[in-house]
Automatic annotation (TrEMBL):
Pathway(s) served: Aminoacyl-tRNA biosynthesis; selenocysteinyl-tRNA(Sec) biosynthesis; L-seryl-tRNA(Sec) from L-serine and tRNA(Sec): step 1/1
Identification of the protein by name: Serine--tRNA ligase
A Pfam short name: tRNA-synt_2b
Record field: catalytic activity: tRNA(Sec) + L-serine + ATP = L-seryl-tRNA(Sec) + AMP + diphosphate + H(+); tRNA(Ser) + L-serine + ATP = L-seryl-tRNA(Ser) + AMP + diphosphate + H(+)
Residues noted as binding ATP in the record, renumbered to the chain: R272, R273, E274, V288, H289, Q290, F291, E368, V369, S370, S371
Region span, Disordered: 51-80
PANTHER family from the UniProt entry: SERINE--TRNA LIGASE, SERYL-TRNA SYNTHETASE
The protein's enzyme class: ligase
CDD domains: SerRS_core
Compartment(s): Cytoplasm
């Protein structure tokens, strides 16, 4: 969350920032709550000081034998105590209301973020890999058809086992996902990342710490209860991204200056209901409820976060460069920035199998495979992430950044479509071959079961 001090000193900048993000928040009400809370805290301090003075007088009056005046002082002390208790109770109520209101207040965009209403006003920063494209088949088969033809993706059985939005990767399809995960992890180890294997369920406090709650409750998978039920800090949820557990590793801790920067990477399966995305992707693995991803999470000094952000973008795009996949980088405008981010770049890989209106002139479409974000101290304030510049100095909030390194299923889509051959096989990018037992080509498997016989594919 943003600091209350910043809100008090720069209310119009905050107002402009949330308007540019297109977030509907009653800022005036938040300012009123804060002003009332500060007034009560001030009155409480005054009453507490006055009561202490009266208490000191009582003993002195008794020593001087002024019993009547002592009794009056005792009565006054009791009145002050009761008034102070009422003020403190009201201040506590306001504190809780103000804290909840501040959780709905988004991060303010950096000054250099382009102002825009929605994704149509994002700014393309660069496009890589299009100068030397490989020769593609005359008609590129979309990954969902090719995956079923090769029997490396099985959507019907995924839906049967778990419901819509789930799939089986089989044979060389499963090998490809495993290979990508191992390849991504190895690249980021070269970049100085320490591996973390996080727990899959995370508690509500952790979801709040990274900004998933309260805004994105509907997108989460809750363990054991309905999403609409009252939420406790200890309730468990399936993680939507490894950002949540890894960022919260150090929640309510103080790191040392010598520790920074901390660079962690984590592979995890991720679970999202995609509650606001019904009907957008009904075929294939572009938008599914469970997907694999490697996440990079950085903890840095505030003065280093801008430079680290640029390096994080380079670290994320490195895997696409090595795989030889064409891609572009977009800078998000304010209206498409997201609730928690001060600045964000999306990396989108090119998938040539399905022509989309917003695709490149070569045809096909763009698929977001990484979002690289600078949260500044927004998450740190929510999660209590601090560092101590010097042993004798006060602790300060550090800055957090993260980026996908990268989302596996959409890279699978790009590989199946971009490295597709005329005969329906798929070349394995050279960096992945050691992770696939030396395979150079994905040739597919043979379907099994009576359904294969019935379809005439087996004798």
């Amino acid at each position: 969350m943003i600091s209350r001090q910043y809100l008090r000193e720069h209310p119009e900048e905050v107002r402009e920032g949330i308007e540019n993000k297109g977030v509907d928040v009653d800022l005036d009400r938040i300012l009123e709550l804060d002003e009332e809370w500060r007034d009560l805290k001030g009155r409480g301090d005054t009453l507490r000081h006055e009561r202490n003075e009266v208490s000191s007088e009582i003993g002195q009056l008794k020593q001087e034998g002024k019993e009547e005046e002592a009794r009056e002082a005792i009565e006054k002390s009791q009145d002050l105590k009761e008034e102070l208790q009422e003020i403190e109770e009201r201040a506590d109520e306001l504190e809780a209301e103000l804290h909840d209101a501040m959780l709905h207040l988004p991060q303010i965009p950096d000054d250099d973020v382009p102002v825009g209403a929605d994704e149509s006003e994002n700014v393309e920063r660069c496009r890589e890999g299009f100068d030397d494209l490989r020769e593609l088949p005359d008609e590129v088969i979309p990954h969902y058809d090719l995956g079923e033809d090769l029997d490396i993706l099985d959507f019907d059985r995924g839906a049967k086992v778990s419901g819509g939005g789930f799939y089986f990767a089989k044979g060389e399809g499963a090998m490809l996902e495993h290979a990508l995960i191992q390849f991504f992890l190895e690249v980021h180890r070269e970049q100085g990342y320490t591996d973390v294997f996080p727990p899959i369920p995370v508690n509500s406090k952790s979801m709040e710490g990274t900004g998933q709650f309260p805004k994105f409750v509907e997108d989460a998978y809750r363990v054991g209860d309905e999403n609409a039920d009252e939420i406790d800090d200890d309730d468990l949820w399936l993680l939507p991204t490894a950002e949540v557990p890894v960022t919260n590793m150090y929640r309510d801790e103080i790191l040392l200056d010598d520790d920074l920067p901390v660079k962690h990477q984590a592979y995890s399966p991720n679970f999202r209901r995609e509650a606001g995305e019904h009907g957008t992707e009904t075929r294939g693995i572009v938008r599914v409820h469970q997907f694999n991803k490697v996440e990079m999470v950085n903890f840095v000094r505030p003065e280093n976060s801008e430079e680290r952000f640029e390096h994080l973008v380079e670290e994320a795009e490195e895997v696409l460069k090595r795989l030889g996949l064409p891609y572009r980088i977009l800078e998000m405008c304010t209206g498409d920035l997201g609730f928690t981010q001060a600045k964000k770049y999306d990396i989108e890989v090119w998938a040539p199998g399905d022509d989309m209106a917003d695709g490149p002139e070569q045809g096909g479409r763009w698929l977001e495979v990484s979002s690289v974000s600078n949260f500044r101290d927004f998450q740190a304030r929510r999660a209590g992430l601090r560092f101590r510049p010097e042993r004798h100095e006060s602790a300060e909030y550090l800055h957090t950044l993260n980026g996908s390194g990268v989302a596996v299923p959409r890279v699978v889509v790009a590989i199946l479509e971009y490295y597709q051959n005329d005969d329906g096989t798929v070349d394995v990018p050279e960096p992945l071959q050691p992770y696939m037992g030396g395979r150079e080509v994905i040739e597919g498997g043979e379907k099994i079961g009576e359904s294969a016989v019935g379809a005439g594919e087996k004798e």
